[in-house]
Fold this sequence. Notes:
The structure holds 2 protein chains of 2 kinds. By secondary structure, chain A is mainly alpha-helical. Chain A has helices spanning 2-15, 24-46, 76-93, 101-120, 124-145, 150-178, 186-191, 199-216, 226-232, 235-260, 262-267, 269-288, 293-316, 322-357, 373-386, 393-407, 411-439, 455-473, 476-494, and strands spanning 53-61, 66-72. A two-stranded antiparallel ribbon of chain A has the order 1-2. Chain B contains 22 helices and 4 strands. In chain B, the strands form 2 sheets. Chain B has a two-stranded antiparallel ribbon with strand order 1-2. Chain B has a two-stranded parallel ribbon with strand order 3-4. At the A-B interface, helix 5, helix 6, helix 12, helix 14 and helix 16 of A face strand 1, helix 4, helix 5, helix 20 and helix 22 of B. Chain A: It is a multi-pass membrane protein. Chain A: It is found in: Endomembrane system; Membrane.
Amino acid sequence: MLTLVIFLPLAAALVLPGVPRRAVPWTWTGVSATELALVVAMWAVHGTGGGTSFETDVRWIPSVRAGYHVGVDGLSLPLLAMTAVLFTSCAVYSLRQTRRVRAYAMLFLFLETVCVGLFAALDLLLFFVFFDLSIVGMYFVILLWGHENRARSALMFFLYTFLGSLVLLLGFIGLYLGADPHTFDMTELTRTPPFAGSSGLAGLTLLAVGIGLGIKTPVVPFHTWLPPAHTDAPAAGSAILAGVMLKMGTYGLVRIAMPMLPDAWRRYALVMLVVGLVSVLYGAFVALAQDNVKRLVAYTSVNHMGYIVLALGAAGVPGGDADAQRLAVTGAVTQMVSHGLVTGALFLLCGVLHDRAASYDIGRFGGIARPAPVYAGLVAVAAFASLGLPGLSGFIAEFQILAGTIGSGTTATAVTGALAVTGILVTAALFLRLLHKVVLGPPGELTSRVTDVRRPELAALVPLLVLSLLIGVVPRVLLDTIEPLSAMVIALVGR
Amino acid sequence: MSAALRGVWGVVPPQGMEVIPGWTSGLAVDELSGILLVTLVVVLVAVLAYASGEGYGARFFVLMLVFAAAMAVTVTASDLLVLLMGWEVMGAMSYALIGYVWSDAERVRSANVAFLTTRAADMGLYMAAGFAIAGAHSLRLDDLPHADEPWRSLVAAGVVVAALGKSAQLPFSFWLSRAMAGPSPVSALLHSATMVVAGAYLLLRLRPLLDATGWAATAVSWAGALTALLLGAVALAQRDLKQLLAASTCAQIGFMVLAAGAGAVDGGTAQLVAHAAVKSLLFLCAGMWLARRGSDRWVDVVFGVGAIALAGVPPLSLWVTKDEVLAGVGEQSSALLAVAFAASVLSAAYAGKALLWLFRAGERVRVPWSQRVPLAGLAIAAAGLGVLGLPGILGEPGPDAWELVLSGVLAVVTVGAVLTVRRVPEPAWGLQWLWLERVAVVGVVRPGFAVARALARFDDQVVDGAVQGIARGGLWTAGLTRRRVEFRVDGLVGAVGRAARSLAALARRPQTGQLHLYYAQAAVVLAVLVVIAVLAG
């Protein structure tokens, strides 16, 4: 079942050349919707219990004990669901795409397999393969369908994140060598953490894994590939890049770094706290100074992902209250889902703006609410979701992260958590500034070109924001799934 | 609270739930919540009835209803999470309502100021939630006083900052001046039964926490007393009626905050209810004058009733309730009492100044009954809610008779003096709201933007510059190798090269310039590396 879910989009991509051109967008949408239905079905079967469901373990490269080992649990299911939702939204959004539709659809279907596969992988080599293929896929999306400096941005994106993946591979090899017996299997590595007794090597491995995943997340100072990549990527590409692919970094931290290197994680928890805090504040402040809508949203991603790193750092601080740490980890996973939905929506909204006026410049718009009231409403909801307004998903995530981090009860967590709270004020300021300059006020230079959202755009955006609203109002379905996983992670880190 | 009131609405048992698993949340109605809910609903009905005659669209009523619902959640929340949810949604709705006429950039700016100022203070509540988990392992409001130190003091500090911000107390008062950019019915609701009173409510609710810390109660008392005094002076200096009323709201809520700090919870609650009726009435009348450049006799009369009640003239409502607060303060500290008494005299002065607007010439317009009736209802409440201070209604021994007489006489004399003199000093510091907004802009906003711009430059030039530099360095090294090293080696190996040319042709084939092929090669090399590592390990 899970293997079918992983490879269904790829299979569809392979038969897509045989589909008539006019049917391509609808086939793409149909496959994505089927994929979503399958993921929801898997979630329904898994329920809110702990443990791993739909596990498959097949020999793959027996000489290095790497297997095709996949399965889903409370960490991967919410992310898989978010991935499927976002890809479906992108397919719907792209119904009117005209340039090289077939190749575009094939590439996105390929990326969907890669992303789903990564979140389901329970083997380090398998994880790595998907991790790298995602970079390749996104490189072509930016290169072929981007705008302005697309070649340069795509190359920078590729080289930077590819470098990160090489460092990550070093870390994985370190984990492999540190395990006794050598293995790439995540379940075994989690059961008996490698480097029993050699803390120096564990620290180095954590450094490699941390940098590799940190570049992907991205954390400050490894974030500079993100703004140009987003600025020049097509809207759907940005939505996938920010919504799904950034999560690969933080997902890896929860799935690999924390349970497999618990000693090192506890020892360097303070580093994670500080890196998270710096990302939160730095991302928010730099976003405040941006005049390009897409760069602005890109930097808020640095801010939002920083909260996740902060929470995961708090989860490792020795002597912290376990219930509070669990709250922080649950918040971190919630934030991954929430950020995917909300930032995905924000990037699609940026795409609408660029589609109409071919500009991202904040200063050239104004008063868009007059010609495009529905669009203005969607922007307002997405902006308030991103700045953490209660009733929308961002609040549930950030409240748990901040309350859990501060509530861990140590001086370090209380101070970093309290400082991170200022991030919510800066994000509020920058989104109000965005609303003020683009949506409200008197009309600007390009305002007359902006027409209201079309039906496919609306159909792509509304589900994302409705899901954010649902998580914000009735978060229990999501949180109950995550909760056993957070408890397990805390227990694993604490041993 | 008295048994009489408890009999009226009883106590609705807490509705337990867990919004996030493992942490008890809930909604509950007790006496304090019940009083606030009734006040909210009555004022909401009056304001919406009035607004229905003004021709607002659906967006207005949706926002107003969500605004009121958020207040209802805030006053019934039994834990910090649900409280914060109502609290912040209320702030966002106030943003949307203040900026209701969104095409006017200045109004949008005012909405931004209001939302950002209150959210800056709200950070205190976010932190308080974390501190509460650390100190009490609970988010429930009734567990907060039992938290361990130093967490309890931190929780109290966070709550107090958030409450002062929401209630526009010093030093946050300036956002309320900005909030006047909204339509008058918004002001009428925002200043009376929602938003600004939420802070006072929270302090009244968390009175046990303030007591438990030892310092918070005193700090809150002084914040309230000083706001009542200084913003009273600001109100007196205003030339615009709506601005006068706005500053008077800060001052009147100062009495409620003072009551929470001094332990006069019943007096503070009575003051809150009576003030809600008075202030919503005054704002609706002021809005009518502004919108229609005139009024009719009916509006003039009810405005007069409201202004006299605001002055604390006997036997109207605020006379009794304010004295009840003062009586509670007198038991605590005579210095506080002196400040509060001075603030009370000022309130009579600015209310007298508000009365002067009645003497200005205006056109006679017809006000429909759909608007007259809600105004009349509020006027009756503004006049008669003094009964809340009667012994037996809201418990607590009331003020002594001599206090009541003294404050009543002072109020009448002050109002009379203002009406006779007709000119009051309007110092610049008062007119400009103590320059609080300018201080905030110079002290916080501009440095914040400066930091943002500096960091953005740093990000472009240093962080990204370093990455670009490394990339350029790599290219330069490659070029150097090609020109210098390869050149010499080339001559040396020329002979070998000829022999190897056939091999080279073969080797050139994968160099297609296509990245995916390079990638495939890199993967192969990596695989080899892995194998080597495996063999070595």
